[in-house]
Amino acid sequence: MFDEKDMILEAKHVTRRFPASGGRELTACNDISLKFYKGKTLGLVGESGCGKSTFMNFLVSLDKPTEGEIFFHGKDITKMKGEELRQNRQNIQMVFQDPNGSFNPKMRIRDIICEPLLNFGRIKKSEKDAVARKYLEMVELPGDFADRFPHNMSGGQRQRVAIARAIALEPELIVMDEATSALDVSVQKTIIELIVDLQKKKNISIGFICHDLGLIQSFAHQIAVMYLGNIIEVLPGENIAETAKHPYTHALLGAVFDIEMDFSKKIESIEGEAPSPLDVPEGCPFQDRCDKCMEICRHKRPETVSLSPDHLVACHLFTNGGANE
Amino acid sequence: MLDINDVTISYGKTPTVKDFSLHMDEGQIISLVGESGSGKTTVIRAVLGLLPGGGKVTEGDILYQGKTLLNLTKDQWRKMRGSEISMIFQDSGAMMNPTKKVGAAFVEYIRTHENISKAEAWKKGVDMLERMRLPSGDNIMRSYPFQLSGGMRQRVGIAMGMTYQPKILLADEPTSALDVTTQAQIVRQMMELRDEYGTSIIIVTHNLGVAAYMSDYIVVMKNGFIEDKGDRDHMLHHTDNPYTQKLLAAVPSLGGARYV
Fold first, then answer.
1. What is the ipTM of this complex?
2. CATH of region A4-91+171-258+267-324
């Protein structure tokens, strides 16, 4: 399904540790390897605090990993500095969760959309109005919105402007950090439709952070599931209800409220909460909440095994270690 | 048990909620769904007499067990809130005083309702937290709200709200700020409240999946009006209201529509 030559970005063994109080270390991302393909969407799911946003921040060079490399068209973006880094920012853009917090409240929409273009000298000041209108229309907003301020718009409209700003530089990859979580379901649907439409027109790759598997499976080509800083499963976006293997992915699927579901059945959900990333247990990170936990899970961290070319899973149920014991 | 009759609620001159009527029986779970700004929260705040700044019920009546709730005195409200009707907010952390430990707030809450000693109130609090499946209640009582996770704070909120086993629990987007897994746990817990204590619940949510799973009766609001209402089966499968159908179509569903 995925062609290696269409790969535009590859993260290799990325690890990020933060210093914590008492001389301890907090491992936010542990040995993460992921691949982004041209024109495809990668959905990254997991509970809060599992390191999804930390990882995506590396891609947009807002933070640097402690170990590991991220290759964008063969160049390691974690080593970039100065002008090279600045120029590279044109290729990877970001849309944030809260459109209120990511705009300057005193700037007009016209200036918000055109600022990245002016920064890189792509347009002249005199062209601002025409360009802003063009991008507003691209995200299905009336061109007159160029004169407005962010507070004159609804949440869904603001998120459209954020998308317009992100696509203005014609980036190859857009990172969306829970871009629809703050919106109503009906608005969320129209934003997703817009994103998919733009992706098809412009062949953009998207990294989408989300905690709702029900939503992400509707438009992602591949889905990576993260737990306590570890990628525990990477699978194609189709039919995840049938293809998912890892017990944690099943737990996430069981927690989706669906209007088609059987209401007489009790909702399945794993108990408790993820342990603090400060004391990740030895062995499998998911051991304490897993109902299939075996002896080996207590002391040995599962290696990632590939079930098919596009399906990776890190669980002892699928390693030889699990089968032998 | 609770009757809301043709209520109109206004902030200032323009009405926010118009001609809202609802009848609730004991042990019933009712959902109010709708987009932001449709007046869902205003309705349940009116029930508890907690309309913010200048909000007023200008027409109609709200009856609890046959008696109106609209002209209660402060003292009467104090007896009503917490023991008869209680509320859970979207973020229970924001409802708690950030400079006070959970225990101090909880003890204060219990002692305004009951004339007992601090030690007894503390014990009651711990007991309540543990009943809401919060392990080591003592530890939580000694924590500040910011030290707890969102799911734990929400359980503390439910524990506080349920201490005196109110007959009606009003829940304002109780799971919107939570992870899917925690959301499932909280939803399950609220359903158990009904089974154990016979509590009636009005839940405000924009998640139609949660509304459909939990409730017996669903009310769809739009721009301050009731757009559509009916029991769950009717709303999910037989309604011909285009707005409800649009909302239902927007719920992401496993194995549902794929755009790619």
1. 0.79
2. 3.40.50.300
